[in-house]
Structure formats: C-alpha cells, structure tokens
Write a structure and sequence with these properties.
Helices cover 30% and strands 19% of the residues. The protein contains 9 helices and 13 strands. Strands 8-7-6-9-10-11 form a 6-stranded parallel β-sheet, with helices on both faces. The radius of gyration is 19 Å and the shape is globular. The two termini are 16 Å apart.
Length: 293
C-alpha cells in the first residue's frame, strides 16, 4: 500500500495510546521513533532504527487472505490506515489537511535539509540540483535562511519556472560556476548528479544529498578534493527533523505567510486518478499533486 506522506483525522486508538485521541487532526511521520535507543537519547530520533523496523513489521492491509505491505509504515493512499502512535503529530484542527499533508515529507525534508542539516546562514550561496516537489522546498528553506544567491538547476523549464516562484534568484540547466556555491543540495537521487553537486561547491563548501540513489549505486568524487579543498559530502534524512518540534514551526510559518503550501499544490486528485497523478509527476507537470478523500 503506497503513500508515506499524509494527514488526516484519528478515528480510533489502541490501548495505552496517550499522544493522540479520536478526532485529533494529525500529520503522519514516516520515520517513527522508539524513544529509548542511542539515537533517540542523543537527540537524533529521525535516525532511529527500531521504531522504523517495528512500524514496517505491522500487518495492516489484507486482500483475499493475503497480507499487503504497508509502505514506510504509513500506507496513506487509502481511506483508512493503522500507524504507530509516534507516527502521529497532532496539529490544530483549522489547518487544511490537504496542505498539512505536504509537511509530512516533502516540505519537512526540503526545508529541514537547509535549516537543520546544513544550517545555512544569511548571505551564503545555495545551489539546488533538482526543482521537483522536494527541491522546491529546499529553495523555500534557503529563502527562510536568508541565502543569496539561490540557484536552481533542472533540465525541465517548467520546473525552473516553479523554482523562480518559490524564491530562486537564478535558474540554470547546468551547475557550472567560478568559485562555487557555499552549499549544494542534490534532490534527485542520481549518483552522477551527486558528483555534479560536489564539484559545484567552493573550497570548504558542503554538498548535501537529499535525493535517494538506487540501493546498489555508488557515488564517485575526486578523493583529493576532500582533504585538499576541504569539501564535505553529507546526507540528509527527513531534513534531520524533530517532528514534534518542527511540524508546529512550519505550520506557524505557513500561517505567517512565510512558507508556501497553497502554491505547492498544482492539482488535486481522487484515489481513482492515482495513475494520472503519477504520470503528471513523472512529466514534471506539477509542483505537487495531492490525493483527497
């Protein structure tokens, strides 16, 4: 059952559940945490392994007596799902669910990569490789951080138009430059683009990998530049987010008009139109498509 990004209303809770109650509005967190492992105790709950393993082991969906896997422990492309208690982040009931769902992954991952992982400072330069649904939110994060310039790189002219709408100061089809950017974000998941992002940063710069390459793919960078140019290559999972802290923060920014959620939604679909939604995404026709029930 696909879908790792969603928001909805709690219908029922199991015995012992304390974080949420029926009728609560929630954003779904696809990296639930156990609360007791080394990562959780060190303040990095987004890296928790046990919470994710337990969530993935749950058997929620069945058809004709056969268990159906639940993607990322969420399975949000369904009218009803069952998730772990700490996969629910409670929000105020007046926040539109079709906007709130975007915070569940794309917005949090993109904005968080800039604010939490890279910790970009005002006036620093940012290059974003990939202006899709997550890349646009890296651009939003760069705007919030006060970065300048913000350069969006993509092969799709429509996506570059979206990038300008969301705050890119410059757009390009390639990532070449003279000195190089302070930070480059790879938001596609292609090993060769990770290399391009690494080569696009200045001496002492940092390349942040947000996109997820294939499991067997290897990334190649000139090893000499790691020590002699002091370049860094790091990953960013879920925007290094503390969901309980960061979801309310992003909602506050949305209410204040500083975070664009309405503008992210190019089209809305019913669940029967899911194939159409995927096709539009692959063609780069939408910033984000949202399925409503």
């Amino acid at each position: 059952m696909l879908g790792h990004e969603g928001a909805g209303v709690v219908e029922k809770v199991g015995a012992g559940v304390q974080r949420v109650k029926p009728k609560d509005h929630v954003v779904l967190n696809w990296v639930p945490f156990c609360g007791s492992c080394w990562y959780c105790n060190s303040g990095n709950a987004y890296l928790c392994e046990m919470g994710y393993v337990k969530a993935m082991a749950a058997e929620v969906f069945h058809r004709n007596g056969t268990s159906i896997s639940q993607f990322a422990g969420i399975g949000s492309m369904a009218e009803l799902t069952v998730v772990a208690e700490n996969a629910c982040i409670r929000i105020e009931a007046d926040v539109p669910l079709d906007r709130a769902c975007l915070i569940g992954c794309g917005v949090m991952t993109g904005v968080g990569a800039v604010i939490n992982t890279a910790r970009v400072q005002p006036g620093q330069s940012v290059a974003v490789f990939g202006a899709g649904g997550v890349g646009l939110n890296v651009i939003q994060g760069a705007v919030l951080a006060g970065a300048n310039p913000i350069i969006a790189i993509d092969l799709n002219e429509r996506k570059l138009g979206f990038a300008r709408q969301f705050g890119a100061t410059h757009t390009a089809l390639t990532g070449s430059g003279m000195r190089g950017a302070d930070y480059a974000f790879e938001v596609i998941g292609r090993p060769e683009v990770v290399t391009q992002a690494f080569m696009a940063i200045r001496r002492g710069g940092k390349a942040v990998v947000v996109g997820v390459p294939p499991a067997t793919a290897m990334v190649s960078v000139p090893g000499m530049l790691l020590p002699l140019a002091e370049k860094s290559l790091v990953g960013s999972l879920y925007g290094s987010a503390n969901m309980a802290r960061d979801v309310p923060r992003l909602i506050d920014l949305y209410r204040a008009g500083k975070l664009k959620l309405d503008e992210l939604i190019t089209r809305r679909y019913k669940i029967a139109q899911v194939s159409e939604a995927f096709a539009a995404m692959e063609k780069g026709e939408v910033a984000r498509g949202v399925i409503t029930f």
